[in-house]
Amino acid sequence: MKKVLVTGASGSIGLKVIKYLLSEGKYEITALDLRNKGNQKRLKKYRRRINIIYGDINDTILIPSLIKDQDYIIHLAGVMPPIADLKKGLSDLIEYNGTLNIIKALDFYNPKCFLVYASSTTIYGDIKTATIKSKPNILPLDYYSTTKLATEDLIKSKLKNYTIIRLPFILSDPSTGSFMYNVKRNTTLEALTDNDAAYLFVNSLNHEAELRKKTFNAGGGDTTTSSYRDILSHVLEIYGISFKYLGTLLFLDKNFYSHIYEDSDKLNDILEFRSDSLSSYYMRLKRSTKNRLVAKFLAKPFIFFLRRKVK
């Protein structure tokens, strides 16, 4: 069996990556993430089917020992906004330095291992449409995007067996804490569900030759393209108000930049990962959301405001 290491395995995409890898039935899976109660709870159901390692990607002893025998690494570990932008150097410490640690281990022990790195389309900045050829436009305080771009450059300069996938706005369950609220309301964006993103990463292992040493924009296509205002109003209607939404609304800059990707079909032509739409995402969110009547009631004024502005 081929061996796969998944970093950041307890995140919303990481958990679905594990599910899809298991469904393939041809991989020995090692999941890596930090040890805390939340991560342990989320990974618990897989403990008899995969290898679960709790540790830090900056660990210079652990990482080489894990990487020696791997055929693939799906590298999802990092710090997401808004936390990534609250403190300068945090993303560098965790993501850039952690990736450097992985690269050193690959270079010394396992140069044939294929690395699939999850980057971000936020590096394009505040523009409407983007392609891989679009010039990065990063503001000085956008530490998240700065680190993503620097990590991409590091990978390109040090490795031969890699692909870089720039992820757009991800549609996920807000209860996981990964739903992005710091987007400008009037932005028209091409999103991607966490289900399709996870399948993208898993299927990339079957297409190493076509992806090697290339960078791609991922996107869900026309069926996941809408205004952020409309997406947000639907999510608030289904899930209700959360402290994360209120905190972002009151205190944080709207600096998670999203776009339409004119070249996102290229990656789908190779990996055929698109199966979701906004309607299927909303239906799935409704099924998973329970006992939030008060939160839904409190969300009504915000929904009214969002939808009134559209008319």
If you had to describe this structure to a student in words, what would you say it looks like?
By secondary structure, this protein is of the alpha/beta class. Helices cover 43% and strands 17% of the residues. The protein has helices at 12-24, 37-43, 62-67, 90-109, 143-158, 194-204, 208-211, 228-239, 243-251, 264-271, 278-288, 293-310; strands at 2-7, 27-33, 51-54, 72-75, 114-120, 129-130, 162-167, 170-171, 188-190, 192-193, 214-217, 225-227, 260-261. The strands form four sheets. It has a seven-stranded parallel beta sheet with strand order 3-2-1-4-5-7-11, sandwiched between helices. Strands 6-13 form a two-stranded parallel sheet. Strands 8-10 form a two-stranded parallel sheet. It is globular. The mean pLDDT is 95.
